[in-house]
Design goal:
binds magnesium ion; 10 helices; alpha+beta; globular; 9 strands; binds adenosine-5'-diphosphate
Amino acid sequence: LFIANWLALLIDSVVINRVSCVDGLLLKRRVKLGSLLILGGNVFLRLTHSRILMFVSTTEWQRWEYTSYQTLYGGGCEIRGRDALLIQPFAGTNLKTHLEAGTLTHTMLEAAALELQRAHRLGFTHGDPHLENVLVDTTRARLIDFETRHESRLSLTERQADDLLVLLLDLLGRDPTMGWLDLSRTFLSVYEGPAVLAELSRRLQLPRGWELILWKTRTNHLSQPALSERIETLRLFTERLTYRQSSIQ
Ligand SMILES: Nc1ncnc2c1ncn2[C@@H]1O[C@H](COP(=O)(O)OP(=O)(O)O)[C@@H](O)[C@H]1O
Ligand SMILES: [Mg+2]
């Protein structure tokens, strides 16, 4: 598992894209050797049972981002040349920045849950909706960064639950205070879908081996005792919420 830890650190540190500003638009370009890095990244994602993959082909990546913007926002992203995209920037700030600045609010988590739910109802799942990939502008949240897709063997419910898990792991791993718990409760309470919540409860078990390495990277390397405790607290809450939502329906 030493290799896995090492791979995880490497993957956290590699840069695959460069984003710059051009006439008020964002130019997102894949770096040279980006595809090679992704090939290595996909080995890690496979070994750690991440359930997602990245696009080795630059063209496929461009198409996926383009189509994601079309599906979710009706546009806002154009393919530029062989290795870049031109993206219309949204206003707002990502949830990670808010968390670190101490300005993350319940309203923002509600907005994030509603936006994920809206995407999910369109049959769309993100694959990597960590806090930095969710922008909030007062009361509206938007997903960005469409570089991964879920493995096609997964059911829609499994993919939806995986999205919720990724966001929650980032929140519970990154918040040094106990604020994460109330914020997570708010987030989950807004998301309607007992089947997805039931699947999420099943997923809220600390994995072993390689998958644990993935969870460490997704939880900002929170210590294992703290991680276990937080996961279990969240699992109990999710189970109760699932039960409540199921009995209402
Ligand atoms: N649609 C967008 N609106 C506003 N900012 C964006 C948008 N897309 C990307 N960005 C900015 O560029 C950064 C990097 O883009 P992103 O698509 O997340 O790529 P990556 O995280 O893989 O480098 C984001 O963290 C965000 O600051
Ligand atoms: Mg990103």
